Amino acid sequence: xxxxxxxxxxxxxxxxxxxxxxxxxxxxxxxxxxxxxxxxxxxxxxxxxxxxxxxxxxxxxxxxxxxxxxxxxxxxxxxxxxxxxxxxxxxxxxxxxxxxxxxxxxxxxxxxxxxxxxxxxxxxxxxxxxxxxxxxxxxxxxxxxxxxxxxxxxxxxxxxxxxxxxxxxxxxxxxxxxxxxxxxxxxxxxxxxxxxxxxxxxxxxxxxxxxxxxxxxxxxxxxxxxxxxxxxxxxxxxxxxxx
Length: 243
Prior knowledge:
- This protein is α/β, with parallel strands linked by helices.
- Helices cover 35% and strands 23% of the residues.
- It has helices at 44-47, 83-92, 96-100, 106-124, 138-149, 167-173, 195-207, 225-240; strands at 2-6, 9-16, 20-22, 27-31, 55-59, 63-64, 76-77, 131-136, 156-160, 181-187, 211-217.
- Strands 1, 2, 3, 4, 5, 8, 9, 10 and 11 form a 9-stranded mixed sheet that branches.
- Helix 4 (106-124) crosses helix 5 (138-149).
- It is globular, with a radius of gyration of 17 Å.
- The chain starts with a strand and ends with a helix.
């Protein structure tokens, strides 16, 4: 594994023929959630039984929540969240306003990921049709937003414990992604991003014609073995179907 910069983001590369992102295999990009350190999802590349040529990219979110904290443990964010307000709204059961919100900072986060994708093609020669873009929690929301708004032809989308935001914009954009393969997972007892919201996202994607597999599990805000098993199968399936 090694660390480089792609666009404005520091990323950790893994997998591939040399286990440091080498070779010309397809790429899985996984973005961590709000408040997690840059390397939060990095261990996944060692646990997912996928073809050896598959490469992994783990970008670090650009915002530091605790400046000066040790780099390996510093919590980061893609955009700022008023956690108390969000949880209060979720606990009230009135989720509709959350679905419609376009978070402040989402545009900047999307621009950072777009720059990373530009550099991924420029430096590593990976076109978007050989890229699965995904993430966990806030990273999953960002991945969904990028896939819907960007003009690239992505190979797939992974939404691990994400939720529905920017509903009006997303709903208008989804039909253009008809047929895109999507893996979504969510815990029925998630105390942070309610399961009902994930179901709404799944229904919205499905109604727009995206090929969404929804992994429901009995648990909270996490990525359990059940979801990892489906993720590894999803990666193999998507890339097996590519020429």
